[in-house]
Amino acid sequence: MTNSRRRKGLTVASALLGGVLVLSACSGGDDDASGSDGGNDSSQSKVDEAAAKKTSEAQIKITPKDGSDNASINNSAAVTVSKGTLTDVSMTTADGTAVKGEISADKLSWKPSGQLERSTTYKLTAEAKDSDGRVAHENASFTTVSPTNSFIGTFTPDDGTTVGVGMPVSINFDKAITNKAAVQKGITVSSTSGQEVVCHWFNANRMDCRPDDYWQENSTVTLKLALDGVEGASGVYGVQQKTVTFKIGRNQVTYVDAKTKQMKVTQDGKTVKTIPISAGAPDNKTYEGRMVISEKFKETRMNGATVGFTDDDGKGEYDIKDVPHAMRLTTSGTFVHGNYWGAKSIFGSVNTSHGCVGLSDTKGANDPNTPGAWFYNSSIIGDVVVVQNTGDKTVSPDNGLNGWNMSWADWKAGSAV
Q1: Verdict on whether the full-model pTM lies above 0.85
Q2: Residue 204's pLDDT band (cuts 50, 70, 90)
Q3: Is the omega angle on the peptide bond into residue 64 within 30 degrees of 0, that is, cis?
Q4: Spatial CB neighbours of 152, under 8 Å, sequence gap ≥ 6
């Protein structure tokens, strides 16, 4: 009986203990169920905190944005970083060709070493580290503006040259410009002389800039092109961003008198030499007006067929393959040049040319003592040649660099700003 009761007691105790154990297990489950959000938040918070510790604080920015097109060839491909420093930047074309670039000394930025190419797709990858050494990555791809959607201005004179007092800044655009004001505002021309400079549009593709009177000798002229991104016509943008400087030399102006058949060369207003010439014959008079030397050739070919002087067979009335000491005055073909084929007696006595101004010279252009050689060696691009008393019309201002044949009021009227 006692043993039986003892076994029952143990059974009850075991049941109670088991119940407590089960109840404890269920109670714990109930606690988890009733507070499951709190328990998971704590765990997730720890995960997020750990992940955050592994994420770099460095923030990389690439411009232009990924997928951009019509991007600038001057200002694109800039990489900057905040809250960190750049450790590596790689730029390639779509075919894998590497593009040179350099990370700045403070390691906060990167840019290409040179100008980009038009109509080209580039890929950029950048890497940076924050102060704890954690690495961040960024990449982008963009395409630069195409030739079809961009314009370029070819300008004269060239950077670093020394030119005569009559040399205008002349810019020829490879696309017709309809938004002339915007383009003109992106171009500035200034001189150390302080002269006011105004630009004049001859047409949709050409703009020249000059002061009221000739440039002051020994001054320096600066041309600034800030055309990058400027919309010159609908969907057509500028790509140039550069500064050009050139120097004005001594003041040389030459006066050609077709009536007296003499040429007077002046420097700083004083006559330094008088040379006998032969200008255009009565049937082919030389243009009158102020003209600017735009090109110089020690020797060049002159074929009448290229400027409309042909015989009955369609061949040029003349074709001289070695014209010495030739200097261009107009686009249409007016030159001051040496003449070795004419009799020496014509110079100073009769006008015989097809419109050019001829000076006595020798074949081969190697004799420095001829009038043609002297004038050639004494002249520079941009010098002024004033032709008078020919009986012909005044040269058109846009026929060569000859805007000086337009009044200042008319010149300013051609400005778009």
Answers
A1: no
A2: very high
A3: yes
A4: 173, 174, 238, 239, 240
Strand partners, 149: none
- Beta-sheet pairing, 162-163 with 252-257: unpaired
The H or E element that residue 253 is part of is strand 252-257
Mean pLDDT confidence for 247-267:
98
What does the alpha-carbon distance between residue 175 and residue 199 come to, in Å, rounded to a whole number?
18
Using H for helix, E for strand and C for coil, what is the string for 124-180? EEEEEECCCCCEEEEEEEEEECCHHHEECEEEECCCCCEECCCCCEEEEECCCCCCH
Structure tokens at 271: 């006559």
E strand or H helix at 27: helix 2-34
How are strands ordered across the β-sheet holding 169-173?
153-156, 169-173, 206-211, 197-203
Contact between 325 and 318 (Cβ < 8 Å): no
- 108's torsion region: left (phi>0), alpha (psi -120 to 50) or beta? alpha
Coil, helix or strand at residue 43:
helix
Note the pLDDT tens digit of each residue in 222-251: 999 999 999 999 999 999 999 999 999 999
Contact, 295 vs 328, CB < 8 A? Answer: yes
What pLDDT, in 10s, does the model give residues 332-353? 999 999 999 999 999 999 999 9
Q: Which two tokens stand for residue 58?
A: 């460095």
Q: Give the count of beta carbons closer than 10 Å to the beta carbon of residue 228.
A: 19
Residue 271's contacts (CB-CB under 8 Å, 6 or more residues apart) are: 264, 265
